[in-house]
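Bench log. Compound arrived from synthesis this morning; before running ITC I wanted a structural hypothesis for how flavin-adenine dinucleotide sits in the protein. Inputs:
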Amino acid sequence: MDMSDGPRMNSELRGLLRHDEPMAKHVSWRAGGRASAFYQPADVLDLAAFLRSRPAKEPVLFVGLGSNLLVRDGGFKGAVVFTHHALIGIEVESEIATPRGTLAFRASAGVPLPHLARFIAKHGGGGAEWMAGVPGTVGGALAMNAGCYGGETWNHVIAVETCDRSGTLRHRAPADYELGYRHVSLLSGNDEWFVSGVFGFAPGVEGEVLARIRELLEKRVASQPLNQPNAGSVFRNPPGDHAARLIESCGLKGHAIGGAQVSPKHANFIVNLGNATARDIESMVDHVQLTVFEKTGVELVREVRIVGDDA
Ligand SMILES: Cc1cc2nc3c(=O)[nH]c(=O)nc-3n(C[C@H](O)[C@H](O)[C@H](O)COP(=O)(O)OP(=O)(O)OC[C@H]3O[C@@H](n4cnc5c(N)ncnc54)[C@H](O)[C@@H]3O)c2cc1C
C-alpha cells in the first residue's frame, strides 16, 4: 500500500550528515574503507526526505550494526544510511489483527535484535530467544533472513514497512517477498529498504524465556571467537552439511593472510587479528572458497556482504 499521498515536501533535514566517514568504525570486522556520505536520520520522515534529496543515481547502502558487512579499502562512493541509534522505536502492537494467541511487536529497523529478544520476553512473548545472540539490527535481520537454533526472522513477520529511493513509504506483507535460507527478495523487483517490522510470537513465561536466552548465549561464548572482530558465519551452510566442517576438513583452521585468520575456534568465522585490511579479509574469503571447492567439490556461498571499491 502506497502511503505517500499528497505533494512531496522537501523538508529541511534534521539528521546527522557526515562526509568521508570511516566505515571500519561501523562494521564488526573493524576494517575497510570510507563512505562518501553518511547519514543518521532523525526519524522515518527525515529518512524519506534524505533519500529524496540525493542525486537519483547515487548508490545508497543501508547499514545497521555492520555485523554482516565489509566495505572494501577504496571505500563506498555513495550514501550510507545508518539506522542503528536512529530508527529505534519498539512497542507491543495492538492494532494489527493477529492469529488467536499470537502477540505482536513492532520494532524499527535500527533496534538491535538482542534488545528485541529481551523486550519480547519481558512483555510475555516466547520464541524470540535465538535473537538474543545475533548482534545485528531488525533491518539487517529482515534483509538477511537472519536465524539460528531453529529460529528464522521471516517465520515471525506479520508485516513490514519499507522506504524507496523516492522516499515513498509502503506497508508490505510476507507474500510480497521471495524468502529462503538467508535470502530475501522483493518479488516486484523494486528497490526498497526496511523501516520497521511487526513480528508475531506465541506467549511465553518470562523466567523460562530468560533462562533459555542465557543458555543460548553460553553456547555461543563456548563455540564462537567473540573476543575478536568478526562478522559471524562467512558462508551459508550447504544443504545437509556445515560450512565449518568442510573448511576444517581442508586444514584451514588458523590459516592467516595478513591480519585475517580463519578462527581456530570456529572455522566458518574469519577474525581480524588487529590490523587486517578489507583486502586481507576478502583474500581469505576467496582462499577458503577456492580451497574447499578444489578439495571437496562443494561451492560455498558467501553469507557476508562485501561492497565498495578496491584501494
Ligand atoms: C558474532 C556474530 C554472530 C552472528 N550470528 C548470526 C546468527 O546466528 N545468525 C545469523 O543469521 N546471522 C548471524 N550473524 C550475522 C549478522 O549479525 C546478521 O546477518 C544480522 O542480521 C545483520 O544485521 P546488521 O544490522 O548488522 O546488518 P548489516 O551488517 O549492517 O547489513 C547487512 C546487510 O543488510 C542490509 N541492510 C541493513 N539494514 C537494512 C535495512 N534497514 N533495509 C534493507 N537492508 C538493510 C545491508 O545493506 C547489508 O546488505 C552474526 C554476526 C556476528 C558478528
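What the model suggests: Residues 1-10 have pLDDT under 50 and may be disordered. The first helix runs from residue 44 to 53.
ITC booked for Thursday regardless.
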